[in-house]
Amino acid sequence: MGGTFDPIHHGHLVAASEVASVFELDEVIFVPTGEPWQKVKGEVSAAEHRYLMTVIATAANPQFTVSRVDIDRPGPTFTIDTLRDLRRMRPDADLFFITGADAMAQIMSWKDNDELWDLAHFVGVTRPGHVLDNRGRKDVSLLEVPAMAISSTDCRKRVAEHNPVWYLVPDGVVQYIAKYGLYVQPGTDASAGIVPVTSRTE
Ligand SMILES: Nc1ncnc2c1ncn2[C@@H]1O[C@H](COP(=O)(O)OP(=O)(O)OP(=O)(O)O)[C@@H](O)[C@H]1O
Ligand SMILES: O=C(O)c1ccc[n+]([C@@H]2O[C@H](COP(=O)([O-])O)[C@@H](O)[C@H]2O)c1
Asked: Residue 10 falls within a domain, yes or no?
């Protein structure tokens, strides 16, 4: 499941859990984006913060893992590259790519979208406020998941307005957001105090 995860919330986790159950997946790999080119630049938190929040949110579930492929690849994040990298790492795996209804609606604007379908089986999941459609592709599965009217945008706004995000995001993520002062002033890159994992050994 790819996402900007700024921050990761229970909508992401429920969708992943439901797809894993219905499709009997062995593992769900959460792949935080490096540079999400369709989101407003400068308004996305540092990749290391988003990566660490994703690790914290998924730590308790043995089926959930987090991949750095997108944040370690320089330049804009394209799913075609994500899937090619994952295929190289897991040559024998059947790959599924989970997307919410809003992302599915944009999928024809993604880079090399005509080549995506051969690299993974796409699963579109319902999301409150969005219409789920297979974009004319019969090979895309559509799945109704428990409705979680949560968005990262709303979580960021709530933090900025000093409203609680308890129970919208996992407890550890609430604490991480407070520890690093994320989202207090929207539009600022709160990367102070965090060392990218890739730089720690340099
Ligand atoms: N509440 C939800 N229910 C189902 N799918 C979701 C939900 N929230 C996000 N998704 C899906 O998870 C993936 C990653 O989403 P993303 O990290 O952009 O979160 P977001 O809440 O949409 O963020 P933002 O509000 O910043 O746009 C996308 O495919 C998106 O459609
Ligand atoms: O490949 C693309 O061009 C592309 C464009 C926009 C979004 N995506 C992917 O869609 C997933 C959800 O992205 P987002 O921006 O809604 O968090 C994530 O894995 C992104 O890399 C991919």
From this structure: yes
What does the pLDDT look like over 143-162, one tens digit per residue?
999 999 999 999 999 999 99
Helix or strand holding residue 65 (H, E) = strand 64-66
pLDDT at 198: 43
- Say how many residues make up the chain: 202
User: pLDDT band at residue 186, thresholds of 50, 70 and 90?
Assistant: low
> Which 3 state secondary structure label does DSSP give 45?
coil
Ligand nearest to the CA of 109: 2
Q: Which atom of ligand 2 is nearest to the CA of 78?
A: 1
Residue 33 in contact with ligand 1 by CB distance below 6 A: no
Could you give the ipTM of this predicted complex?
0.99
Atom 3 of ligand 2 has which residue's CA nearest to it? Answer: 110
pLDDT tens digits, residue range 79-116? Answer: 999 999 999 999 999 999 999 999 999 999 999 999 99
Hey, how many other C-beta atoms are within 10 angstroms of the C-beta on 166? 9
Q: What is the CATH number of the domain that holds 138?
A: 3.40.50.620
Counting the structural domains of the chain, the total is: 1
Q: Are 72 and 33 in contact (CB under 8 A)?
A: no
User: Which ligand 1 atom minimizes the distance to the CA of 39?
Assistant: 27
- Residue-range definition of the domain harbouring residue 40: 2-180
Examine residue 191 and state whether it is found in any structural domain, yes or no.
no
77 lines ligand 2 (CB under 6 A): yes
**Is residue 148 within 6 Å of ligand 1 at its C-beta?**
yes
